[in-house]
Amino acid sequence: MGAQLERTGKLSQAELAFIELNGQHYEKTYGIARIGGRILGLLMIAAAPMTSEEIGATLKVSHGSISTNLRLLAVLGLIEKVTLPADRCDYYRFSPTAWDEILSKRMKCIHELRDLAYLGLDELKPQGAVRQRFEQMATWIEIADRKYEEMLAEWKEYTDQSKGQQLANRESLQNEGTGI
């Protein structure tokens, strides 16, 4: 994508298709309005932060719809508002911690379900098929929780390595600039 979108608003057919499929995915999977998913898709492929006006013009969507969905995506931690030096506009970009936020929210959901399963087992004292249902729920949650913990550890390892590589690249560039 790169410079193609930067402040021109021109999108290729592949980019338009990606944005639309992203909108459909977030609508179907998370119940977010399709425009919210489209905004997220646009910001994922944007080379630079965009204003709400640029987003609206690019996606051909009203300011009110853009504003509402930007707030929702920011609350979810998927995008963030940024400012640029000597510019009074608010800009939005795909959050560098979006994947952390998604994983964190999923783990929180699993933990809430675990609490419900144990509440059902302890307080309702179910018998027979109902008890089996709660026991299966608790077992499923324990398995899911373990897998999410493994994913979190693997993701942390990846992000730590990535940050280390970025730091090494910056130091290398600085050393090249000083002749060291």
SSE layout and pairing:
Elements: H1 13-30, H2 34-45, H3 52-59, H4 63-75, E1 79-82, E2 91-94, H5 98-123, H6 128-178
Antiparallel strand pairs: 1-2
Helix pairs in contact: 1-2, 2-4, 3-4, 5-6
Output the strand order for the largest sheet. Answer: 1-2
Helix/strand-derived class?
Answer: mainly alpha
Q: Please tell me what the overall shape is.
A: extended
CATH superfamily of the largest domain: Winged helix-like DNA-binding domain superfamily/Winged helix DNA-binding domain
Order of helices and strands: HHHHEEHH
Beta-strand content bin: under 5%
- How large is the count of helical segments? 6
The total tally of domains equals: 2
CATH class of the largest domain: Mainly Alpha
Q: If you had to describe this structure to a student in words, what would you say it looks like?
A:
The chain has helices at residues 13-30, 34-45, 52-59, 63-75, 98-123, 128-178, and strands spanning 79-82, 91-94. With 180 residues, it is mainly α. The protein folds into two domains: 2-94, Winged helix-like DNA-binding domain superfamily/Winged helix DNA-binding domain (Arc Repressor Mutant, subunit A, Orthogonal Bundle), CATH 1.10.10.10; 98-178. The chain has a two-stranded antiparallel ribbon with strand order 1-2. Helix 5 (98-123) packs antiparallel against helix 6 (128-178). The chain is extended and about 65 Å long. It starts with 12 loop residues before the first helix and ends with a helix. Residues 1-7 have low confidence and may be disordered.
